[in-house]
Amino acid sequence: MKRIFLILAVTALMAGCGSTTNLDEVPVVDKTGTSVLPPGANGSGSAVGKGDVTTVDVGASSQNAAIVGGPRVVYFDYDSYVIKPEFQSVIEAHARYLKADKSRKVAIEGHTDERGGREYNLALGQKRAEAVRSALGLLGVVDSQVEAVSFGKEKPAVQGSDEAAMAKNRRAEIRYK
Amino acid sequence: MAISSLRGWYKIETMKKRILLCLLAGMACLPVLAQFRVEVSGVGLTQLPIAVSAFRGQDSAPQKIAAIVQADLERSGQFRGVDTVGVALDEGTRPDVALWRQKGADSLVTGSVSRLADGRYDVRFRLWDVVRGQDLGGQSYAVTQADLRLSAHRIADFIYEKLTGDKGAFSTRITYVTKAAQRYQLWVADADGENAQSALASPEPIISPAWSPNGSQIAYVSFESRKPVVYTHDVATGKRRLIANFRGSNSAPAWSPDGRTLVVTLSLDGGSQLYAIDAGGGEPRRLAQNSSIDTEPVYAPDGKNIYFVSDRGGAPQIYRMPATGGGAERVTFTGTYNISPAISPDGRWLAYISRVSGAFKLHVMELASGAVTAITDTTADESPSFAPNSRLIVYATQSQGREALMTTTVDGKLKARLTGQNGDIREPGWGPFQKQ
Q1: Could you tell me if residue B357 is left (phi over 0), alpha (psi between -120 and 50 degrees) or otherwise beta?
Q2: Which of B56, B72, B146, B382 would you call most buried, defined as having the most Cβ atoms within 10 angstroms of its Cβ?
Q3: Contact A26/B226, CB-based, under 8 Å?
Q4: CA A31 to mean position of chain CA atoms
Q5: What are A12-38's pLDDT values in tens digits?
Q6: What residues of chain A lie within 8 A of the CB of B184, using their CB?
Q7: Which of residues 57-96 of A touch B (CB under 8 A)?
Q8: pTM of the entire structure?
Q9: Chain A interface, best mutation among B123, B140, B147, B170, by max A CB count within 10 A
Q10: Nearest by CB: A149 against B228, B270, B360
């Protein structure tokens, strides 16, 4: 029974994977626009002027990826990178899938709640992502299939500053490329 | 006792009125797209009383030069504006010094703004010591309309240096990030927050902007490719260069004082660790090797040491190590969460964020003595950055549910708020002195 459920879960997961938007192909537009400010002119006393600022617009590129069928988020306790037992099955399902198809690559995206500095949270999110990566590695997934990255506190899953919201934001998302 | 406190109350009330007046006057002349409003709260201890008279002819110019000069000087915490009741005095007029002494001023600024035949403006001013009755000098600037504010900041720099002996930093620039409706923008603005120009717009977060030492480039972290990568960005041309886009996360760029090297945090070998990269790009050189988090590097002004954050002791603390790598020594000892170090360009101060009873607060340490001062009463301070003259700090905080930028004196006695009208403002970085 449990086995059937697992097969269903993995099937759902794989179905979802096929429809994942490829966000690797985000176009980066480097454009050189026109000057915003004319250069300052020299005065009779001392020169006044400064360099112009040119606007670069990287465009409305990435859309949020479609939610992949099947669980692909691992939640963490405050200030922790330990994968709780209830998420072991999620990781095992993805490990099985990745081992079965060595051509698939996956990004593990670590996130934190809103408390604290942006860069330090980026490093904390990285630890969460790497905890999931090494858990996949322990299950036999080849390291080159997995990239661990972090968004720190920049991309909360839900808005809000209460513990319920913050618990949903302390997470690592498994995203197929 | 009663009289003095009454006098104190009166002073504050007149100050409030004056600020309100300034604001009203300011609003009338602000360009439509002005991003900021300046509020002064708190009073420094010793402030030089200065009267900045209206500049003759400034009503026909699009910027009220005298008001900009006065706001700059007051924001520094070193000056207290004396009411000039709308008197306009030009730089050629010899003022009645006794009258200005009587008004409580030690110094007086006079000046004029006039239109030149080619459409530019001729801005002139003179600074008077009304106690000694001395002319302290003046200057003139021929500027385009777009540079009128800059000329006012240059005037404030002249006055500041003449009267305090320190170089003024009013004609410098700051960068910061706004977030509005899921759109992130990196801006370059005057040090008073005005005259903001967009350098980068993106649907994904932008964090950690850092000015190159010569002020021509900004390094930052962009998530536009669905992971953090480090760019350098030429401010004048908008030309960008991908500096660090290695496997894993790339973040926290810091420029060496000679502008040749960037230290960044990379996770390409697992864990967040510090690496040096040539500012033009190239292979990263690992500076330290451990299993803990090392991040948020900043160079000491002499370029010999790097300050950074590490949790190697179990909780994030600020450490210092040689810029080429090697043994690190711990710098912060109070509290269990100390992050985001900034070193004043004169090497005297370390500003950082410390968690105190669950609140994140700006602190300043005098490096020689290790003495620490808590600067703020807010609870979500972030990202301190020093003015190039080491006298002010700009930082991000939360106020009334919005992310906002503040400046503070190093002793915390005077703060000014730079309030954005659209969305949240964060990640400030104060640029270097600009060549004149």
Answers
A1: left
A2: B72
A3: yes
A4: 26
A5: 444 333 333 333 333 333 433 323 233
A6: none
A7: 57-62
A8: 0.83
A9: B147
A10: B228
d(CA B320, CA B107): 44
pLDDT in tens, B198-214: 999 999 999 999 999 99
Fold of the CATH domain B173-430: Neuraminidase (2.120.10)
What are the residue boundaries of the structural domains of chain B, listed by start?
A: 45-164, 173-430
In the three-class reduction of DSSP (H, G, I as helix; E, B as strand; rest coil), residue B100 is classed as helix
Q: Name which of B227, B269, B274, B361 to mutate to probe chain A: the one with the most chain A Cβ atoms within 10 A of its Cβ.
A: B227
Examine the predicted complex and report whether its ipTM is higher than 0.90: no
Indicate the CATH number for domain B45-164: 3.40.50.10070
- Testing the interface with B: which of A119, A142, A144, A176 to mutate, by most B Cβ within 10 A? A119
Sheet holding B305-310, edge to edge: B294-299, B305-310, B317-322, B329-330
Domains present along chain A, CATH in parentheses: 72-176 (3.30.1330.60)
> How far is B254 from A41, CA to CA, in rounded Å?
32
CB–CB contact A45 B233 (8 Å): no
Contact A130 B270 (CB under 8 A): yes
B173 in Cβ contact with B189 (< 8 Å): yes
Whether chain B has a CB inside 8 Å of the CB on A29: the answer is no
Do the two domains B45-164 and B173-430 of this chain adopt the same fold? no
Among candidates B251, B267, B337 on the partner chain, residue whose Cβ is nearest the Cβ of A119: B251
H-helix or E-strand spanning residue B71? helix B65-75
pLDDT band at residue B419 using 50, 70 and 90 as cut-offs: low
Which structure tokens are listed for A77? 């306790």
- Asked whether the beta carbons of residue A119 and residue B340 sit closer than 8 angstroms, the reply is yes
